[in-house]
Design brief:
By secondary structure, this protein is mostly helical. Helix content is 75%, strand content 0%. Helix 1 (2-15) runs antiparallel to helix 2, helix 3 (40-58) runs antiparallel to helix 4 and helix 3 (40-58) runs parallel beside helix 5 (87-103). It comes from Ktedonobacter robiniae. This is Transposase.
Length: 221
Amino acid sequence: MTILLASLTRVAEKRGNVPHELERLQSMLTKGLAATRSLWSDVQTGYHWVYRAAHILSNDETLKGAQVRQRYEELLTEMAEVSASSKALTTMLTTFRKVTTSYWPGLFHCYDVPDLPRTNNDLEHYFGSARHYERRATGRKSASPGLIIRGPVRVITLVASCHQQFSCDDLRLTDIARWRTLRNELDYRQTICRDRSRFRKSPEAYVAALEEMLLTERLPT
């Protein structure tokens, strides 16, 4: 805003007469800057921290994930130890660290895995493609229950097939234990979805069946 205000001032000095609209805009900017003058110091300090974080995560030096993580941890330590000049800045730094913690488990894989998207926006392209092909195959505008249950397989298959053509040898089962674990997870998802559907259709019958099952298990044999 200060740059815009300076530009308007220069225009006024050159032209001598300034249109009423520009005078009104200049007056609004002057009042706005005066009213928020006390906040600009915190904004500049906060921008400095965010800029440093963005520079580390952009990884222009193409460091490994462990190295990027170490540099980022050092930055968070600095933010935790800094003596904030105001309550607003303290709140900003606390919120930044809290949000970073929520993303932490998957924040650094992209530096070690080739072609892995770094941001949620990049990942959204893959989910958008999955929804597009799902609509074309089923004619449904909303996601089908099958996609929700088997999304960990279908979405990953879609993403992989967009980048590579697989042969029969590629699809041959090699890790039986991992395959069985995945099957159990998908069966568990399907069981939950099926039970939820049965409960919605007839809550009384569903609860009665649970009570009968509970009583039967507790009765002595």
